[in-house]
């Protein structure tokens, strides 16, 4: 397992892209909207890990709710796993609260599942697995 990316909730994606361009001194890798989550994302490559900026596309977005409650900032840490279904099973067996027991399509061609922050010392943990060509 390595850190695939750190997700940062931002109010204004374009503004945040400009900020992180300056910090990292490189262009944004790609932007992508995840309609089902009502978020627009922007990725920056930083070594083997990435920074994922997350902006709400709608006031009902989970990112908007997060910002309303906590303000902008780190939203989640994502770990890349080889077999997400197996990891969900293993962690559920360890007593972790899995927010979606079925992995769902996320940004960056991944299948994702989230672990509730209450079990993780306050950090929302994302598990992600790169989707192979023959998977939905
Ligand atoms: Zn993420």
What does this structure look like?
The protein has 136 residues and is α+β, with helices and mostly antiparallel strands. It has one domain: 2,3-Dihydroxybiphenyl 1,2-Dioxygenase, domain 1. Helices cover 23% and strands 38% of the residues. The chain contains three helices and eight strands. An eight-stranded mixed sheet has the order 2-3-4-1-5-8-7-6. It is globular, with a radius of gyration of 15 Å. It starts with a strand and ends in a 6-residue tail after the last strand. The mean pLDDT is 95. The protein binds zinc ion (ZN). Zinc ion (ZN) binds next to strand 1 and strand 5.
List bound small molecules. Answer: zinc ion
Number of strands: 8
Proper CATH architecture = Roll
Task: Please bin the fraction of helical residues.
Answer: 10-25%
Question: What's the main sheet like?
Answer: 8 strands, mixed
The tally of helices reads 3
Structural class: alpha+beta
What is the first-to-last residue Cα distance?
A: 23 Å
Shape: globular
| Overall number of domains | 1
Computed Rg = 15 Å
Q: What CATH first level would be assigned?
A: Alpha Beta
Average residue-wise pLDDT: 95
């Amino acid at each position: 397992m390595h850190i695939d990316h750190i997700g940062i909730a931002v109010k204004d994606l374009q503004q945040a892209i400009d900020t992180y361009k300056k910090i990292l001194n490189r262009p944004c890798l790609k932007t992508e909207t995840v309609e089902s989550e009502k978020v627009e994302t922007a990725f920056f490559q930083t070594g083997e890990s990435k920074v994922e900026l997350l902006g709400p596309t709608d006031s009902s977005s989970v990112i908007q709710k997060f910002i309303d409650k906590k303000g902008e900032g780190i939203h989640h840490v994502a770990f890349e796993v080889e077999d997400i279904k197996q990891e969900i099973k293993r962690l559920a067996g360890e007593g972790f609260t899995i927010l979606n027991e079925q992995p769902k399509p996320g940004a960056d061609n991944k299948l994702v599942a989230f672990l509730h922050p209450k079990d993780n010392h306050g950090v929302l943990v994302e598990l992600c697995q790169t989707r192979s060509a023959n998977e939905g």
